[in-house]
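User: ok so my PI wants both of these folded by tonight, can you help

Assistant: No problem, let's get them done. Here's the first:
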Amino acid sequence: MYGRYSRDLQHFAGEEARRLKKLAKLRKQEDKLRSQLFELEQNRCTRLHSLSAWTSQCIMDRLAKDWIFLTVCAIIMALISFFMDEGIRISYAVRFWLYNDVAGDLFTKYLAWVILPVFLVVFTAGFVNHLAPQAAGSGIPEMKTILRGVHLKNYLSFKTLVAKVLGLTLVLGSGMPLGKEGPYVHIASIVAALLSKLATPFRKIYQNESRNTEMLAAACALGLGTCFAAPIGAVLFSIEVTTSYFAVRNYWRGFFGCVIGAAAVRLIAIWFQGADTVTAIYPTHIATEFPFDSRELIFFALTGALCGLLGASFVWIHRHYVLFIRSSQLLNKFLKKHLLIYPAIISLIISTLTFPLGSGQFLGSELSSEEQLTELFSNFTWTRTDHNVEEAHIVSHWTTKYSNVFGNLICYTLFHFFFSIIGSTMALPHGMFIPALKIGSGFGRLIGEFVAWMLPQGVRYGGCMSPIMPAAYALVGAAAFSGSVTHSLCVAVVVFEISGQIAFVVPVLVAVLVANAVASMLQPSMYESVIMIKKLPYLPDLLYTNSNLYGKCVEDFMVRDVKYIWQNMSYLQLKEVLRLNKKLRSLPLVDSKENMILLGSLQRSELVKLIEEQVGRERRMQTAQIWREEELKEEQSQRRPSRFEVIVTKDELTKQRSTDD
């Protein structure tokens, strides 16, 4: 049968294949024609939608590039800086309006001067504590910890950004002796972290932890660059302060972001704040033909040494003051229960001391922080008597009928020295760099005015007289004290950029080096001190003065009698180990007592829970119940027959059958 119809089947299969092939070809042509007709019927809006989707995808892919990322971050930071400066300016304007125009007598002027700062500080303390407590403080110690690879919860969140920006604006607008450099670094880091999350869907590289760390390091430089419009010093700051080991490939990112941010800040000042051109923030106008005499380097070095001692004292007093508050159980308990009492008291005291008709007349309190620094850098001697109208107006802020220039500068320096420490203990966003600049510039101006008073004609050198410039000493003091507090040399470059003065490179660098040498021998930096106070998981560098530590080996401080548990130990042995070591919170788990291969560690609470589950009272009761049930079953299965059994006899059986019948 199969051989008979094989040829016919083959012919049929061939025809069927040709028919299916032709049918498939026709269907393909019909599908093509149908798709063409569908495309013809497709409206213009749909085409534009697909075109826009393709265009947006291409644009977002380009925007995820590093230089675009840094540009966007820099522009955002410049806008944030502009709005914050405007908010601070408005707060100052409202305060002086209440003081000058609204209030009449002495008491109402005092209330007008005090009530707004106290309200702003108390509101900021409550707002920050409710929204994001992580926004309190500087932010640089936390960023140093994060850049070391430690994850701090919610320190780079959007809530922290809002609390930091609004809180810092209100705090600086209240006139507290605090700064903004540290919070700017924190804000820029948060902006970079949030932008990285937005860029992740377009470039998966932003999910990489190493790339995020590099962007955070660049953001730290960007924050300082937008704060002072000092790109070079900001990059050096990110290298020197925020990280211990800086990746060279990240250098261009920091520089690029800082330049864009600084340029944006200065351009916004020209467009919206009425600035004439791009100038220094605190101009000095010091003549550069013969700026200083070489013999003045002795005075500059002495200024650096004194600033080093003051900087180390500043860090020591700050740390011990904070530790005193924390160690006092009664005070600590009261402050935790009444969070707003401490900020209210401190702000009230500071506002009272800065009251212009009271002790504030010795502190230049009628000036803002920027105006104070600008006048401290003014290029003329305050102790002279032949001042013009503009110079006399500046000197009037630093003299009273009760005191001269020296007394006011001493009061100004001491006030900011101590109350910057006290104010920084409030749970508010704040920085310490601008207070350090003010303390250093006030102290340097004091030394410069004293030298100018001692040498009114200047220093004779080569047949000509070199006048003493107190503004140069103010610059040197500002850089030296800031460097001694932060243990960094980049502050010298920052001072050059914010003052627009490059003629005093050698004096400033000499003073900063001397101040750093003195301060580093006595105390850690302010940032490391805060890390120690907050007990952040940060491994500090060894100080060069502690040379004995470099000879220490692990065996000198290792624990030799290590308590451990092994894999096949009994519950009795485990219970005995826990009983003998009640202070241990965790125990290492090894393979066996012979191999001692570490498998991991177990918490004491988990081990106690395990013992309770396995050999505890409840477990013993369950085991006893099981044993009891097993005994009952065994008794039932092994029950013996009774000796008295009823057996039916044959006669009884026959009788029973007959009865049934």
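One down. Here's the second:
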Amino acid sequence: MSNSEHAKSDYVDMPRSSRLLWHTFELTTLCALCYAIPVALFMNALFSRILLDTFFLLIGLLALTRLVGNRVAFVGLAVLWVGGCCAFRYYVSVLPLVRDIQEGAARLPGVFEPELLVSAHFISLKCFAEFVLPFLYAIYCVRKSFSFIRFGIAIVFGTLGSKLLLYPFLENRTGYTAAVGVFYQLLFGMTLVLLPIQRLSLERLVGFPLRRRLETNGEAPTDFALRILGHGVLFLFLGMMVYTAPASLAGRLVYRRVMRGPDPTYYSPALRNGYDDTAVLFTKNGRAQLESLGRSFGIQTVDELKNLNNQKQLDDIWKATDIAHLKRDHTTAAPYFTALENLGNADYLEVASPTFGCLHNTVRLALSRALLSQHEGKSEECLANVAMIFRAAATLRQTPSLTMQMMGVNMDYVALGLSQICVQSWRGRDPEVALLLQTLNRAAPTVRASLNIDKMWRGPEGFCQPVVSDFEIVLPAVFRAARHTLTVWLSFDLIRLRTALELFHCDWGQFPESLDELVPDYLQSIPRDPFEGKEYEYKRRDDHDYYLGVNHEKKWFVDKKPLTFPSPNLQESISSETLK
């Protein structure tokens, strides 16, 4: 009887429930692959990378099998294929990670503690083992006779099992997710026994033979070399598990070290009870309600705001704007302005973070309202909006979510852009410049504060756990966030110094010889460059002209893409020559 006939007879003899189970398994696998490929390519979902890795690994191995008929040659080429995949992933993802740690962590004190940096090397090992362990397990399962079906099943279960074995204690799991994790680990353990030992039972389940019956007695060939290869692969598989065990244990210890302190309460109704108006920022309907408001105004983003170089450009924007319609939009958005004000008055958020779209549109409308007040000569109302944005940004930077913290940084960008427009428009006007400097001095303690890394490490919304799957995706974002945060410090310092210089000129009719003359009447102390700790460059050219800036060419953080704000030609935008 041929293999196909034997498989057909086995399939007919199968119970109906077993056939239904097998078809369900086929359909589930197909749907998972069809879902994982587009999601992984277009959304970069972390969990779908497991299925995507398995898919491409199977495609490569099947292609090698088509080209090579010899079993030993196939095994050799397959090992090279898997090793190449591992090397590619290692050099593409892990090495830049280690380089970022070495170059960045030393320059960002307080972001990462030294004893936590060693965890990145554990991640490198696990990233390598993720590819190797499933393949070694599959080779062990087909050590006596090769079968596409059996090899594919072994790869799928091996991928699932290696993922669970390598990351058993590294996520902050609830009771439900922990129970599910234990169930899948038990399922993998049962499969580990089922595939190599009880293959006859599995053949009856799937409906066709998982091994080639080459002898009349139905026993698989027992070639000595293949047996040695199979047992060698098994010992190598177990050895890699044992070798990665210290990494998993160390990861668990580091995780406990990081998850210090009690978890904050995220779903307490205290905030909504205390600040009822703030609740509108937490509704998904807010984005739809605000989306169409204020669109007639010519400035909608921070980039458009920072590209304003003189008052004439702003006047041209106002000429093209329907001011009456813009005021009606501001009246419609009044509840959201109240919510943003209450958000700034809150000490911290005890509930889930506000919806990003609603918060973004509220800040966008607050930007246009502040510029409208500045255009109409209402300096106090303009600065009240600036202070409101600064305070709301400070609250968001206390949340345990990097997304919300960076939203707070973006709001600081908006407030700084408004401040730059104000100091540019109010040159020589003592009362307005004095109010602006007072607003900036009040905001200084909150703006010049580091990212709250401690809060990001705690709780179910914690962002950056030093030991986490696909860590190479997570860690660079922290360094980028820290760089952008320090850039906010730098921009804030320059605008505050410039405001103090303008107020000094209003009082004395000339600019000071050095920045030290601003202390203590205008500033409590002279800030320093947050990146290198050096003094800012200041040169008095004459009584009515000066230069204030920083040399970006010498900064370690410069890359191919310029930072969002301030502009690359920061010296020119700060220099008083651009205002003449």
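Residues 86 and 290 are 48 Å apart (CA to CA). Residues 471-508 form the longest helix (38 residues). Good luck tonight!
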